[in-house]
């Protein structure tokens, strides 16, 4: 069994930021990541640009330089990879942690690498910095399991000339619709809201509304998809059910944390379905286990959350440092 001072699960921007902060207080954290470093960003649309300016995405006091006002996905991948290398962060990639169990004042973590080999670790502190993107919010409707349905949008090229339905009204749905229309796809956006979402980027909305008013993109409000077939979808709206010819469906309905893993660990869930943690320390209801990044974002699970999630590691490091400065008796009483 490998002994560690602190283990961080997840090598996203907020997991990397947490590792940097733990190093600053003298710990030697190990990050265990089931895929590649900043995997969630690598899953973003190929030509995506962040909403945020580069300085709001910086970690470890390393400047994020870009030639544009908003950094691209490729620039972000390079930046976070470089930040991890410059701070000499240890990352154990392509290994999944499957369970966490208390063992006195420490925790035993069981893992498995990509070849199915078991790994065991023991650590005093555990920081869960996993993202959401492995757990999309499913619709629970007939046909959702068809190959034509995806909960991710990477790029528009595969959909040239196709009839594409986009479910959702968030920024990701609007951006995808615009990209698809530009390459000649026939786009229908199906949104349950009565009006456009207030979260849509203000510099994007006018262009999107113009496309809708000109008939280049079809927008259906107060509507939901209730069934998906090979060549059509069934949409329920204010005027009843209608059949719409369809080749592909992009269900861009958001994501949620791995609740099973969290509850199996002993972390309780709030009524809204999000894990319990103290906002000032990021510690969960289990002393010694912390949350960092999007897993603690509640309703704000998107790339903007890096702006605030990058500071979670600082809160965690300060709390651990305060714990270490107290006597054992005082520590047990916290």
SSE arrangement:
Blueprint: E1 2-9, H1 13-24, E2 30-33, H2 39-42, H3 73-86, E3 90-93, E4 95-103, E5 106-113, E6 118-128, E7 149-150, E8 163-167, H4 171-182, E9 186-190, H5 205-213, E10 217-220, E11 224-228, E12 232-237, E13 240-245, E14 248-251, H6 259-265, E15 289-291, H7 306-309, H8 312-324, H9 328-333
Parallel strand pairs: 1-2, 1-6, 2-3, 6-15, 7-14, 8-9, 8-14, 9-10
Antiparallel strand pairs: 4-5, 5-6, 11-12, 12-13
Helix pairs in contact: 1-8
Explained architecture:
This protein has 334 residues and is of the alpha/beta class. The chain has two domains: 213 residues, FAD/NAD(P)-binding domain (3-Layer(bba) Sandwich), CATH 3.50.50.60; 103 residues, FAD/NAD(P)-binding domain. 24% of the residues lie in helices and 25% in strands. It contains nine helices and 15 strands. Strands 1, 2, 3, 4, 5, 6 and 15 form a seven-stranded mixed β-sheet that branches. It has a five-stranded parallel β-sheet with strand order 7-14-8-9-10. β4 and β5 form a beta hairpin. The chain is globular. The chain starts with a strand and ends with a helix. The C terminus is likely disordered.
């Amino acid at each position: 069994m490998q002994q560690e001072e602190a283990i961080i699960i997840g090598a996203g921007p907020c997991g990397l930021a947490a590792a940097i902060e733990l190093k600053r207080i003298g710990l030697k954290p190990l990050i265990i990541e089931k895929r590649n470093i900043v995997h969630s960003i690598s899953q973003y649309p190929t030509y995506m640009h962040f909403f945020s300016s580069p300085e709001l995405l910086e970690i470890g006091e390393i400047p994020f330089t870009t030639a544009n006002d908003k950094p691209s996905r490729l620039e972000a991948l390079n930046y976070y990879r470089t930040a991890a290398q410059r701070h000499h962060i240890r990352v154990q990639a392509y290994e999944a942690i499957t369970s966490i169990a208390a063992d006195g004042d420490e925790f035993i973590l069981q893992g498995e690498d990509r070849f199915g080999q078991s790994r065991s670790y023991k650590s005093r502190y555990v920081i869960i910095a996993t993202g959401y993107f492995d757990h999309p919010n499913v619709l629970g409707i007939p046909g959702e399991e068809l190959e034509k349905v995806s909960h991710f949008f990477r790029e528009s090229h595969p959909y040239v000339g196709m009839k594409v339905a986009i479910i959702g009204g968030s920024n990701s749905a609007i951006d995808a619709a615009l990209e698809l229309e530009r390459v000649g796809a026939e786009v229908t956006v199906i949104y349950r809201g009565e009006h456009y979402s207030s979260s849509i980027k203000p510099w994007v909305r006018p262009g999107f509304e113009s496309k809708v008013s000109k008939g280049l993109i079809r927008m259906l409000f107060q509507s939901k998809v209730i069934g998906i077939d090979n060549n059509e979808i069934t949409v329920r709206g204010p005027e009843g059910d209608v059949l719409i010819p369809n080749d592909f469906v992009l269900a861009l309905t958001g994501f949620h944390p791995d609740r099973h893993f969290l509850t199996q660990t002993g972390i309780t869930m709030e009524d809204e379905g999000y894990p319990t943690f103290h906002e000032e320390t990021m510690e969960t209801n289990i002393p010694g286990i912390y949350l960092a990044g999007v897993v603690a974002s509640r309703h704000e699970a998107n790339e903007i959350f890096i702006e605030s999630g990058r500071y979670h590691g600082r809160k965690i490091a300060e709390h651990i440092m305060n714990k270490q400065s107290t006597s054992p008796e005082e520590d047990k009483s916290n």
